[in-house]
Amino acid sequence: MKIQIINGPNLNLLGVREKSIYGDSDFATYFESLKVRFPEHELSYYQSNKEGELIDKLHEVGFDLDGIVLNAAAYTHTSIAIADAIAAIKTPVIEVHISNVHKREEFRHKSMIAANCKGVIAGFGLDSYRLAIEHLIG
User: Fold this and answer.
1) Who has the most CB within 10 Å: 6, 41, 49, 126?
2) What pLDDT digit, counting tens, does each position of 64-98 carry?
3) Which whole-number Å values give the CA distances from 52 to 4, 14, 17, 41, 91, in the listed order?
4) Bridge partners of 119?
5) Could you give the angle at the alpha carbon of 135 between the alpha carbons of 57 and 25, nearest 5°?
6) DSSP code, position 95
């Protein structure tokens, strides 16, 4: 299977920012461990802090791959445009979050994209990505 992981704004700072919420591991190291764990599957990784670039990536991969694992970060709670992009593509998308967004600020409790995703996984740290991949590969 071919699976694309897409991370949104500020997730390039994992391992540096708010370690009490996001942990002390950077995503590049974690992504390498995912490739080792799932060697029979083709995993790709993309990160951008820009909403339009995330939408462009969804359009680019959303018709050819087997699955997308998306952590839209703060755009989860604000972006109707990303929600529309997910609705427009054929590839199933799983929304993931490192933290349990429902234990955080009230504005984080509402996802604008969840209704267009196959499912949502939140609160398991970086392991949320592994859980999403395991679901996609069945």
Assistant:
1) 6
2) 999 999 999 999 999 999 999 999 999 999 999 99
3) 17, 21, 23, 28, 19
4) 94
5) 65
6) E
Q: What is the pLDDT of residue 38?
A: 98
pLDDT at 12 over 70: yes
Known catalytic residue: 75?
Answer: no
Let me know if 97 is a catalytic residue: yes
User: For 8, what's the count of Cα atoms within 13 Å in the CB-facing half-sphere?
Assistant: 22
Which domain covers residue 38, as residue numbers? 2-137
Query: What residue numbers does the annotated binding site for substrate cover?
Result: 71, 77, 84, 98-99, 108
pLDDT at 98: 94
Q: How far apart are CA 37 and CA 122, in angstroms?
A: 20
AA letter at 91: T
The catalytically annotated residue of 22, 30, 45, 129 is 22
Q: Which of 30, 45, 75, 97 is catalytic?
A: 97
Question: How many domains, in total, are found in the chain?
Answer: 1
* Binding-site residue positions: 71, 77, 84, 98-99, 108
